[in-house]
Amino acid sequence: MTYPDPNDSSAPRPTPGGHEAPPIESGSNSGPVLDFPSAPVPPPYNMPPQFGPPPGYGPPPYPPPQFGPPPQFGPPMGYPQPPMYSPAYPTQPATNGMAIGSLVTSIVSLVGAPFSLMCFGVITIPASIVGAVLGIVALNQLKQRPQNGRGLAIAGIAVGGVALVVNIVVLVLFGYALSQSTHPSGYTGV
């Protein structure tokens, strides 16, 4: 195989991005010629086929495993034993549901006091009584259980009592106003 002279300007040049073979020195090729076979070389016929590593190679034989309890690890010497359970966040006791219900019912009956005239106190007076009773029941439950809500229960009792008084005063004033009004026919109600 011959290569073009690099100093010859008439020789074709490779395209950009292509690769050019390195120039060969003067025509002597003194290197060895390697001839690779096209097929795999068969093993010698006098040796039996080998499977696995030759004898003497590979990991050394180990004794069979010993079964028993797993090793016990503890804290390093000089350190105390860690606690068995430590929660990430401290837990707080739940709030008593009766205390919440007491305060909510008492507030609803107090807010509804001006509207008690529409139904003559049929809803708001019993609601204020229920709020106070729920507060008393919640206080009794809180004496027996470790729960939160003592302040809610006391507030439910207080607001329920105030709502009951306000509802009764509103109904008495409404009744008095009705008795003092004059009827178009001249009837004064007495």
Short description, anyone?
With 190 residues, this protein is mostly helical. Helices cover 35% and strands 0% of the residues.
Explain what the structure shows.
The chain is mainly α. The chain has a domain at 97-180. The protein is built from three helices and no strands. It has helices at residues 97-111, 124-144, 150-180. The longest helix has 31 residues, at 150-180. The chain starts with 96 loop residues before the first helix and ends in a 10-residue tail after the last helix.
General form: elongated
* Strand tally: 0
Q: Count helical runs.
A: 3
Strand content: under 5%
What key attributes describe this structure?
35% helix, 190 residues, mainly alpha
Which SSEs are present, and which pair or pack?
Layout: H1 97-111, H2 124-144, H3 150-180
Helix pairs in contact: 1-2, 1-3, 2-3
